């Protein structure tokens, strides 16, 4: 399974150049719940550990500078290694700081949230929020390794678990009916550990297969954006409104609205929506936006960096489960109809 032993040798084949010093970046929650387990197996001097406050609002240039300063002040060189222990926030910002420090040092992700396990920690998209825009500054830089252990998830709040679950749902929707059934039949309440490990592994296989074919998102990788055009707009809207929701919640709402568009525009069988709706009623709850927010949401979609031409809103939609169609344009009227439907659920 993906529960790699934490005593793996950081000097092994995963890192070509010998590592002189190891640094670790974490946030306050991962530090509390996960760092002790890591320190049992990897010896890192206390002064080489930087703990920053938790939360996506801290994925900023100011904290990136703090990471760079921390590395400089402890004499990190291009032969140093940065371990990122935490959720997607730490993996994204730590990866970005590593990719830019002295034109790039090696980094390894040790994800501690479900979302980071199945999505943020692998794939090499690193970056920070800037000027109020999520992930506005960043680059592609793959980690040397990703060390995943479902044991870290024991302390994860349910909300964060559901956030990652939405990304697993997305992977299954773009993969196959078999994968979708696997996800939808998982019992979230009892959360059986072995089955969860299998689902994490399946999800990563789907994501990594796509990333390997198209690392820099010129084509196929855009299928991973399913649910994210509307999802990102909702996430950003909620953030601006001072009422942030976890990334995966926004993605879940985005998935539903983009399934609606897929039914309308590409003839997707609407039974898929009916299969997914119980997750809304039983777990995610209704989105907190309303029809009044539509203009702002559409404006946010218009500025999404995934758009090919400025002003056009670019979607990935499904013709069928396992058959994603990238670069789909929808009219404002279609988008409004999908949002109306979503907000009326
Ligand atoms: N690079 C990518 O491809 C990619 C993909 C998806 C999302 N992301 C990014 O990932 C971020 C979201 O990731 P996330 O949901 O992991 O958020 P996060 O890193 O903010 O973690 C969520 C919360 O869980 C806490 N936490 C972490 N591990 C814990 C544990 N084991 N026990 C208890 N609490 C724990 C964190 O401190 C935080 O409060 C966003 O910044 C998003 O933009 C990046
Ligand atoms: Zn996502």
Secondary-structure map with pairings?
Blueprint: E1 21-27, H1 28-33, H2 35-41, E2 49-52, H3 61-73, E3 80-86, H4 88-100, E4 106-111, H5 114-120, E5 125-130, E6 133-140, E7 145-146, H6 158-175, H7 177-184, H8 193-213, H9 228-240, H10 247-266, H11 271-284, H12 294-302, E8 314-320, E9 323-329, H13 332-343
Parallel strand pairs: 1-2, 1-3, 3-4, 4-7
Antiparallel strand pairs: 5-6, 8-9
Helix pairs in contact: 3-4, 4-5, 5-6, 5-8, 6-7, 6-8, 6-10, 9-10, 9-12, 10-11, 10-13
Bound molecules: nicotinamide-adenine-dinucleotide and zinc ion.
Nicotinamide-adenine-dinucleotide binds at residues 27, 29-30, 33-34, 54-56, 59, 86-90, 92, 112-113, 115-116, 119-120, 123, 125, 134-135, 152, 155-156, 160, 163, 246-247.
What does this structure look like?
The structure is a single chain. By secondary structure, the chain is of the alpha/beta class. The chain has two domains: 21-155, 3-Layer(aba) Sandwich (Rossmann fold); 174-343, Dehydroquinate synthase-like - alpha domain (Dehydroquinate synthase-like, alpha domain, Up-down Bundle). It has helices at 28-33, 35-41, 61-73, 88-100, 114-120, 158-175, 177-184, 193-213, 228-240, 247-266, 271-284, 294-302, 332-343; strands at 21-27, 49-52, 80-86, 106-111, 125-130, 133-140, 145-146, 314-320, 323-329. The strands form three sheets. A five-stranded parallel sheet has the order 2-1-3-4-7. A two-stranded antiparallel ribbon has the order 5-6. The protein has a two-stranded antiparallel sheet with strand order 8-9. The longest helix is centred in the middle third of the chain and has 21 residues, at 193-213. It is globular and about 55 Å long. The protein starts with 20 loop residues before the first strand and ends with a helix. The model is unreliable at 1-13 (pLDDT under 50). Residues 27, 29-30, 33-34, 54-56, 59, 86-90, 92, 112-113, 115-116, 119-120, 123, 125, 134-135, 152, 155-156, 160, 163, 246-247 line the site of nicotinamide-adenine-dinucleotide.
